[in-house]
Here is the input.
Amino acid sequence: MFYRENGQLKTSYQADQQIFPIAQDRWFILAMLLLAFVVAPLLATDYWFSAILIPFVIMAMAAIGVNILVGYCGQISLGSGAFMAVGAYGAYNFFARVPDMPLIPALILGGLCATVFGVLFGLPSLRVRGLYLAVATLAAQFFADWMFLRIKWFTLDTPSGSVSVSNLQVFGLPIESDVSKYLFCLTLLCLVALLAKNLVRGAIGREWMAIRDMDVAAAVIGIRPMYAKLSAFAVSSFIIGVAGALWAFIYMGSWEPSAFSVNESFRLLFMVIIGGLGSIMGGFLGAAFIILLPIFLNQALPFIAGMVGIEISTTVVSHTELMIFGGLIVWFLIVEPHGLAKLWSIGKQKMRVWPFPY
Amino acid sequence: MSREIGEVILDVHNISLSFGGVKALSDISFDVREHEIRAIIGPNGAGKSSMLNCINGVYTPQQGSITFRGQTFSHMDSHQVAVMGVARTFQNLALFKGMSVLDNIMTGRNLRMKSNLLLQAIRWGPAEREEIQHRKRVEEIIDFLEIQPYRKTPVGQLPYGLQKRVDLGRALALEPQVLLLDEPMAGMNVEEKQDMCRFILDVNDEFGTTVVLIEHDMGVVMDISDRVVVLDYGKKIGDGTPDEVRQNPEVISAYLGTGH
Amino acid sequence: MLYSLVALGFVLIFKASGVFNFAQGAMVLFAALAMARFAQWLNTAGLGPAWLVNLMAFALAAVVMFAVAWLIERLVLRNLVNQEGTTLLMATLGITYFLEGLGQSIFGSDIYKIDIGMPKEPVIAFQDVFEGGILINLEDLIAALIAACLVVALSVFFQKTGTGRALRAVADDHQAAQSIGIPLNRIWVIVWCVAGLVALVAGMIWGSKLGVQFSLATVALRALPVVILGGLTSVPGAIIGGLIIGVGEKLSEVYLGPFVGGGIEIWFAYVLALVFLLFRPQGLFGEKIIDRV
Here is the structure.
């Protein structure tokens, strides 16, 4: 009875098309924003920031990017790690080589590098789809792996191959402490989420979904598949690239090419599948899930085993993690292909009529 | 009916189409005049859908050409065809199952939307105004087809008859000059057929849209079409008004078998 | 050569069921682990001469793979019958992770040896024909022979038997096959059992050559380009593709490597596959992919 829409009649198309048409949703989002921007910095410990909050925020951004390509446009991509890498190294090169390059433009330029890379390796999508496209994106992944490992120019010819950044600041405010890192990333995340949501509910979003659902029909009503697919790759890789740059600059500080391996690509894909394909909210949920799961298992499994009197080593925990990941992917695909986001919206549906069952 | 039939708007010359060894269309020629309702009929497998697919650019004929408003093409590009003002519905429905009715029809407006990516991302301002402007047109179509209660429903969940209306709505959203309808009444009961007929006639009447219609129901064809083309095994065996065609002995034998 | 065996597994499942089994790599690992461990246990139990132990280990591992196949069918495939290809692909991805975790939990994650008595020293042959002779790795040769036998056996199975026909029907169209009474579920199980067997053979050979270790799982990723090159529906394509890629990788490393800083192996296969995808997606021998409206 609290979640009713009654009385919330819309008198204009504009009102009907808002992101959160139901007033209770607007309150909820406001509360979440308060929680994220105000409460968390006050309450969270260092561990929380470094292990949970900051990775979550950055990965959520990347997941939104991947979702645009895979969930909205239906182009499978196993090369997300490569896009992150290109974004990171691109931003790094601009930052380190151009004197006095401020942080935000460096990040944007990194994102643009990723865009170029993404569009290039997105070209096969005009010819093939499904598994074949997956292989093409894997080519991007391995090529990027090699590029940053072997071409010394990218890593400023450091002998070890690892690079680092320091003394980051935005508009004069230093980004050193956990709180400032978190707030910076969070602000960018909110911005990206808003822009992404706008794209997705606009004309281009419909084009992407049309291509996903039936690209022959899309062509017949005047949508150009080439433009739609490449724009999906472009927007998606831009977002992923910026996320990659953030991951490198802010979360890691110093990194090596192996940080963006094919495992990251799979991780991102899983986030999107579990969180919900074709939903911006899904990016958030998926990222949260995948980041929290290992931590949860690390705490819970020894505890449960202890109750039954068995000793569990960390290797077993990591194996179980793999099993649970795999099992969950399959489970989600069977039970709810639209992931947690769908479960979320089903929950909201139930709330709308609570306490009446209809 | 107050509309007048105008000049030839679409002209099909000697189209031949084969798939591997199978010849789907052999040397087909016919024309379509502006504002008329032209029916294409023929037994199953006669090549009717293939003909529409050629006009739409989905298939490329091995021989022949198509003239639209004076411009001749040896093969059509789907996008170009849509820009030129030709829209179509599909026999097996080609709706975007993951989207709502509203969104499906809105995709038909995409051709006319001008905001670029950046404007859309910001939304506030020009992009939003454009969305609202097109939303108005789409709502008019929804009213016309009487599907208001379903506008937010994902089309995959609608019954077949309603899905067919959405297919029509999406085609109408292009504000086409020529509407290609591929068996719009397949699988419908009498009432649904009457509704669909009404829609087609209204579209032709109010907007002057030329209609090319593939249909099996002879009653409908005789009732609403101005001229008819008959295909059989990929060849044209009849072309004229419904009455002329009905009395054509070749047509009769194709449908009913020889011996009549 | 080893690529070819893994690729064979991919092609077989795809040909028979239209599903691309990403988990083939994990299955190879799982099977190899199973066999290695069983052999170890049997050895320590002193159950007889080496060849008997190996045979029993092979048989036991085969049984395990059949069980895995049955489970996969039961739990996963049955529920995903008519989903589109991408969903199934991602499901097999999930299975991959699951098998990796499971395999290591049950069988442990150290490096194991499989010793099936394959000769390890290369042999110099054809000394009369070529200068200095060609270095032939006997092990590879035997592996090739085994693969050939496997292929012949499977081809006969597919073409001549009723089950084989049913398999091909299912690969074409699940629903149609169901509607003419083909028991979909049993077919799935058979297909995956066969794949499991192939995985076992591949794992055995690979394991005896390199030792069984976790990196075996990434084999699946390395074998993908082979499948693209050869064509997803072609058994000879898998073999030839494997040879081309295997040889190509080494050659490119030797000739192109020094120009661009080395380490080309990482992406050579994939870029080759990419080129094929752009110009000839069906590979050298596959069927053309047709999109129906």
